[in-house]
Amino acid sequence: MATQNYIILFIYYVAAGQNNLYEWVRDHRVHHKYTDTDADPHNSNRGFFFSHVGWLMMKKHPDVIQKGRQIDMSDILADPITAFGCKYINPTENKFVAFVALGEGWHNYHHVFPWDYKAAKLGNYTLNLTTMFIDAFSKIGWAYDLKQPSEELVRTFVMKKGDRSHSLQSVSHPNSKMD
Ligand SMILES: [Zn+2]
Ligand SMILES: [Zn+2]
Fold first, then answer.
1. Which of 9, 63, 94, 126 is least surrounded by Cβ atoms within 10 Å, i.e. has the fewest?
2. CA distances in angstroms from 80 to 77, 89, 144, 159, listed in the order given
3. Among all ligands shown, which has an atom nearest to the Cα of 55?
4. Which ligand is nearest to the CA of 24?
5. Which residues contact 111 (CB under 8 A, 6 or more apart)?
6. If residue 178 lies in a helix (H) or strand (E), which one and from where to where?
7. Ligand 2 centre from 27 Cα, in Å?
8. Nearest bound ligand to CA 35?
């Protein structure tokens, strides 16, 4: 990605007030590795508020810190813009900033298919503005290599592992018909 594009996205990230980027990436890697345990920075067993907003306002559980130290962050440390964000901008001060988790509603899906850029099975823009944002940038070439599972793969997974409460209608992205 061209540097100026990356800087614009980075500014959006900082505006979201979710700690510095290095910390966010490390916490998210810990979250995937130790989901819903004490080492998960936004452990959902601690309640809806904590898992969405509260975790940004509180001291981390010691397990989060300990497991976080074991995460390989060499790729992020090698990135100059992220390193800049860690040294000179301190968005952790913005703890009063609450956020609306746009497009984060399908969390189980995200853990099954973490490589799907939509992080959700539905591409409905009303409920997933983040997808709309990424799609808009893909139209002008800033976002690319967007991956998503086939409808068959999602269907197969839901039939095998799902609790049968899922609707299998409209699992495809609205854009997939146009592509
Ligand atoms: Zn998650
Ligand atoms: Zn994730």
1. 126
2. 8, 13, 21, 44
3. 1
4. 2
5. 32, 35
6. none
7. 10
8. 1
| The pLDDT value given to residue 163 | 62
Q: What's the 131 CA to ligand 1 centre distance in angstroms? A: 17
Cα–ligand 2 centroid distance for 28 (angstroms): 6
Measure 31 CA to ligand 2 centroid, in angstroms: 7
| pLDDT tens-digit map of 101-111 | 444 446 777 88
Of the candidate ranges 44-48, 133-137, 172-176, the one whose mean pLDDT is the lowest: 172-176
Q: Which residue has the higher pLDDT, 128 or 32?
A: 32
CA of 141 to the centre of ligand 1 (A): 27
Residue 42 CA to ligand 1 center (angstroms) comes to 8
| Token pair belonging to 97 | 């900033």
Is residue 25 within 8 Å of 19, Cβ to Cβ? no
Q: What is the chain's length?
A: 179
Among 158, 173, 169, 166, smallest CA distance to 124 is for 173
- As given in the structure block, the two tokens for residue 111 are 């853990």
Phi and psi at 94, nearest 5°, equal -85, 50
Q: Above pLDDT 90, what percent of the chain?
A: 26
Which candidate, 158, 176, 174, places its Cα nearest to that of 124? 174
